[in-house]
């Protein structure tokens, strides 16, 4: 997969600009706060329909404008694909090959992407929400069914939690089993997909981590809860656990059982990375997870996704920078940095200098 051309209009600090990307290494360089990350963000948005940096799309619109437009000509193993997003203050419209899509699930999988920035240290250092976010985003790009199941699970979960706050306890106890039957159906799909993804991610991440550290440290990961059996068996188990937690749920006012409470364990050696990893260890572990993610996309989608490395090179020492660049043969990579020479190391690349939201020829 690759992005060939990217057009931005009234997006972030860009008035109007067009980028041409090569199939290999692309370097967006320039001083800080010039728009390099904004360009990378636009690529990710067209791949996933969301941004990792903001909650509301209106924040993507250039100051003084009422709409933003981003579009790309991309390619995957089936041929060329065009993706366009018109973003207004209160609504947006996304088109794939000229056809308006009705739901975000129809966007996923056209062009996959993996995004890595210094902020991805949260994946290692912060709470379970960050690791669930990582799993959800990765699996959703590979499986529209997972994305749909996750949306429905979260919607029913929200309704169940609202019910738990009702003071009519008899009504709540009478109604909960109805909600649980639907909730656990989607929960089982989410749980099984995460288990399958993590089982493949673990050895790939361990290998990538060993490569980056010259075997000095061992990375291991897995889900903190193991649900045995197929979807039907997992669904039945979750229903039993939820019914057994009614008293606790009523007391607390929210659902205490389900995949929204699960976590992915990440260890370096024998120690939990969340509590014991240094900044350097956390950075290397997060990068290893992203490299492993690349390989899973290649295996399951039949080709590598677009890799976006936002301001990562300055955070790595020279040996790790060289190892990373050498690892990315055959992967379209978009790198943002202040100095292009930090990532070249003899590689042919497409260098694009950005200043003030414009390409400097």
| Relative helix content | 40-55%
Give the CATH H-level superfamily of the largest domain: RecF/RecN/SMC, N-terminal domain
| Biggest sheet features | 6 strands, antiparallel
- Uncertain runs: none
CATH architecture of the largest domain: Up-down Bundle
Number of strands: 15
Strand content is 15-25%
> CATH topology of the largest domain, anyone?
Glutathione S-transferase Yfyf (Class Pi), Chain A, domain 2
Spatial sequence of strands, sheet with the most strands: 2-1-4-5-6-7
Ends distance = 27 Å
* Number of helices, where a helix is a run of at least 4 consecutive DSSP H or I residues: 10
Content-based structural category: alpha/beta
Radius of gyration: 22 Å
Which descriptor suits the 3D outline?
Answer: globular
The total tally of domains equals 2
Average pLDDT taken over every residue: 93
**CATH top level label of the largest domain:** Mainly Alpha
Order of helices and strands: EEEHEEEEEHHHHEHHEEHHEHEEE
Could you characterize the architecture of this molecule?
- The chain has 361 residues and is α/β, with parallel strands linked by helices.
- The protein folds into two domains: 1-112 and 305-361, Rossmann fold (3-Layer(aba) Sandwich), CATH 3.40.50; 124-304, Glutathione S-transferase Yfyf (Class Pi), Chain A, domain 2, CATH 1.20.1050.
- The strands form three sheets. The chain has a six-stranded antiparallel β-sheet with strand order 2-1-4-5-6-7, covered by helices on one side.
- The chain starts with a strand and ends with a strand.
- It has ten helices and 15 strands.
- It has helices spanning 36-48, 122-125, 128-142, 144-164, 169-213, 231-244, 246-252, 273-276, 279-301, 318-327, and strands spanning 2-11, 14-20, 25-29, 67-76, 79-88, 92-96, 99-100, 113-116, 219-223, 264-268, 271-272, 306-310, 333-337, 349-355, 358-360.
- 43% of the residues lie in helices and 24% in strands.
